[in-house]
From TrEMBL:
CDD domains the record matches: NT_KNTase_like
Stored InterPro entries: NT_sf, Polymerase_NTP_transf_dom
Name this polypeptide is given: Polymerase nucleotidyl transferase domain-containing protein
Organism the protein comes from: Kribbella antiqua
MF (Gene Ontology): nucleotidyltransferase activity
Pfam annotation, one family: NTP_transf_2
Residue span(s) of domain Polymerase nucleotidyl transferase: 24-53
Length: 245
């Protein structure tokens, strides 16, 4: 079920929280219904803040005709998952609190955490370390060589489907922008394109389609352009230390 009106969706979400989490300190509705791009299969992404059990946990249910994803946290567990967001440069939890409609806020924590998460989303991730950048350049270099040597459409498809995502990761995180997966990655690329007057959100997937049909040149050229923004190809001299055993 899809409700076009965000306020209507928020009413459904608020009723759910009041019924199932009457002691909630705060709760937020995020995701596609708040962004305004909900589809017929969209769900309600609801984050609930408790002061103890059953948090932390997540649960998938149906309520009021909607599929619902519940993310139930204490403030400590919320901080833990936000830290994981920072480390992987993918702000899933931060967006589920920061880019939201507040459903309930009994002690001010709803507004406080929403503002803190939104500020961090807007600030972007930390810069890549030299080691992180070199690993991305090396990985992409190897994938480019593998794609150029691929002899069947199946192999080209398998390599291209990985390469475009690594190229996007370098493009975004290389300038302190957040990364994503699936539709989220395309949204991040589109946001980058809007600022830089580029077309990566179209060109990278188009390169994958072309490679799958036998022409890898477009994706190779586009990826090399991205690589050249961050030091170019890297193979000779690359070194990665392992943890002592």
């Amino acid at each position: 079920m899809m409700i076009q009106d965000t306020a209507q969706a928020a009413d459904v979400a608020r009723r759910l929280v009041m019924e199932q989490f009457p002691s909630a300190l705060a709760a937020w509705l995020g995701g596609s219904v708040v962004r305004g791009d909900a589809s017929a299969t969209s769900d309600l992404d609801i984050t609930v803040l408790l002061d103890g059990l059953p948090a932390p946990m997540r649960r998938s249910i149906e309520y009021g005709g909607w599929p619902v994803e519940l993310f139930v946290h204490t403030e400590a567990s919320l901080a833990h998952f936000c830290e994981k967001d920072r480390q992987r440069r993918q702000p899933t939890m931060m967006r589920l609190v920061g880019e939201t409609v507040i459903l309930t806020d009994t002690d001010g924590s709803g507004a406080r955490l929403q503002q803190a998460c939104l500020a961090e989303v807007e600030a972007g991730p930390s810069a890549l370390t030299t080691a992180e950048l070199d690993l991305l350049r090396y990985t992409i270099t190897c994938l480019l060589d593998d794609l150029a040597d691929a002899s069947t459409d199946d192999v080209r498809t398998a390599i291209a489907s990985v390469l475009w995502q690594d190229a996007a990761r370098l493009l975004l995180t290389g300038v302190r922008r957040w990364y994503g997966t699936g539709k989220g990655l395309l949204r991040e690329l589109s946001a980058y394109d809007a600022i830089h007057a580029t077309n990566h959100a179209h060109d990278l997937p188009a390169g994958v389609r072309a490679a799958s049909a036998g022409d890898s040149s477009t994706l190779i050229e586009h990826t090399e352009q991205i690589l050249n923004l961050h030091g170019g190809r890297l193979f000779a001299g690359f070194e990665l230390a392992a943890e002592p055993v």
